Amino acid sequence: MKPVLKKLLYKALQLCIAVSLTTTVALADSTPYSITINCTYNGSAISGVTFHIYQVLEKTGASYVLTPDFSGSGANVRASADNQINWVDVANTLAVYARANSSWISSTSAVTDSSGNCTFALSEEGSYLILGDSLTAN
Q: How many C-beta atoms lie closer than 10 Å to residue 45's C-beta?
């Protein structure tokens, strides 16, 4: 691979993987749901990338609260006076906390296959944080 292309690929992967993803899943009638990640660059699948999923919010009554694993994160998931939550700040706070405490926080990991895909099965209603490990292009 040409050195310039390797550098561009590396930078693109850093950007892609550094982004923290959050999603909320509302499960109805115990129907299983899943999240599939497709990791590609310039139309080419990237295999061997490890992603981790964490349940960060759980449903309690009609609202969502931080799970016990993330209760000490300092993430503000309460709406402000204008009824808004800054989800980007919440995701970043949770991502930093998850990486710093990964030795004891519960998560599930998956590695992208030759098609660049990995899938997580979700069984509980809540909000989830997905983080990817760094990858170095050769």
A: 15
Task: List, for residues 28-87, the tens digit of each pLDDT value.
Answer: 455 678 889 998 888 889 899 999 999 998 888 877 889 999 999 998 887 665 667 778
Q: Which residue in 123, 133, 130 sits closest to 58, CA to CA? A: 123
133 vs 50, 109, 119, CA distance in Å? 6, 10, 16
Q: Give start and end residues of each alpha helix (H) in the chain.
A: 3-18, 87-100
pTM recorded for the entire structure: 0.74
Is the Cβ–Cβ distance between 95 and 14 less than 8 Å?
Answer: no
Of 103, 99, 78, 100, residue with least CA distance to 89: 78
Question: CA 5, 47, 49, 40 torsion: positive or negative?
Answer: positive
**Closest by Cα among 126, 130, 122 to 63:** 126
Calculate the average pLDDT of the chain. 77
